[in-house]
Amino acid sequence: MPFLNVFGHINRDVILRVPYIPEVGSVAVTDREVCCGGTAFNTAMIAAKLEVSVHIYSAVGKSLKECVEKLRRNGVGVDGVLFGDDDGPFCYIIDDGNEQIAAIYQGPMDNARWQSFGEAKWTHFCTGSPESYLEVAEKVRGRIALDPGQEVFYKYDKGILQKLLKYADLLFCNKNEYGFIRKLVGEPKIRIVLTLGSEGARLIHRNEEISIQAKRVNNVVRTIGAGDSFRAGFYCALMNGKTFKDAVRFANEVASRYVCGDIIIE
After folding, report:
1. Residue 190 domain flag
2. N or C: which end of the chain has fewer CB within 10 A?
3. 3-class DSSP state for residue 124?
4. Cα(4)–Cα(120) distance, integer angstroms
5. Whose CA is closest to 61, among 108, 104, 105, 128?
6. pLDDT at residue 106 in the model
7. Residue 89: helix, strand or coil by DSSP?
8. How far is CA 159 from the centre of its chain?
9. Integer distance in angstroms from the first to the last C-alpha of the chain?
10. Domain that holds residue 231
11. Number of domains within the chain
12. Per residue of the chain (266 residues), what is the pLDDT tens digit?
């Protein structure tokens, strides 16, 4: 049995680096990169590099076969990847080195459904269809983490979020997502990992909040995928018997190593 099942996106990322992100108008692109990416891809790939036993569940078009093979070569179980008739997903990211905005064409992930899946100690739901994830959650026997990311703002409503939270043991979110979730359904009754970027993270459970500072990084090479590296580090620590607090501390360390280029996705 793998320790971790990750449900979410494998994308073809088109990253456009710019000096700043304009509110209106246009800006010159200083560099362009095309690569494999996506929440599930990054999390699973880095988790495998940290020697976590991990399987990925996603849906892609045939042009992304190379991304799936890259995962397989790095030790990620890929039997849960569905191949659809549509192409994609494609994600177009504008990055100024600190902040990003993105537009995504969902492709096969729009209607992905998994009729069967293997059991794992933890099942992590990243970006993707909440209705599909609810179908899976109803059958999962292990522990569940919900991590909807920016999609919580436009794919989730009160009903589906409440239903998924009933099955979840853990919620990952940033400040904006946390504020939106609380407005939608009130304070979640489960353990929350609140990510704060360069400030670290906060572990929230019932009436207790623990702040864990991030390691200072002087030479930032990249920020895209930093949150996914944090998740991978978190599960690596749990797999090795660490407490949630120590898992957040180690996750901060892994994210710091990632942004300064010590951990590379190949």
Report:
1. yes
2. C
3. strand
4. 5
5. 108
6. 96
7. coil
8. 22
9. 26
10. 4-9+39-87+108-259
11. 1
12. 899 999 999 999 999 999 999 999 999 999 999 999 999 999 999 999 999 999 999 999 999 999 999 999 999 999 999 999 999 999 999 999 888 899 999 999 998 999 899 999 999 999 999 999 999 999 999 999 999 999 999 999 999 999 999 999 999 999 999 999 999 999 999 999 999 988 999 999 988 999 999 888 778 888 888 999 999 999 999 999 999 999 999 999 999 999 888 877 76
Strand order in the sheet with 143-146: 77-83, 54-60, 4-7, 122-125, 143-146, 170-174, 191-195, 201-205, 208-212
Using DSSP, state whether 109 is helix, strand or coil. Answer: helix
- The answer to whether residue 93 is domain-embedded is no
Spell out the residues 6+ positions from residue 154 whose beta carbon is closer than 8 angstroms to its own: none
Residues designated as active site: 228
pLDDT, residue 217, reads: 78
**CATH code of 242's domain:** 3.40.1190.20
Considering the domain boundaries, does residue 20 fall inside one? no
In this structure, is residue 210 part of a structural domain? yes
Q: Which of 71, 57, 154, 62 is nearest to 112 (CA)?
A: 57
pTM: 0.95
DSSP annotation string for 206-248: TTEEEEEPPPP-SS----TTHHHHHHHHHHHHHHTT--HHHHH
Say how far residue 66 (Cα) sits from the centre of its chain.
20
Question: Could you tell me the two tokens for 102?
Answer: 């993105």
Helix (H, G, I), strand (E, B) or coil at 254: helix
- The single residue listed with the structure tokens 């494998």 is 10
DSSP-derived letter for residue 29 is -
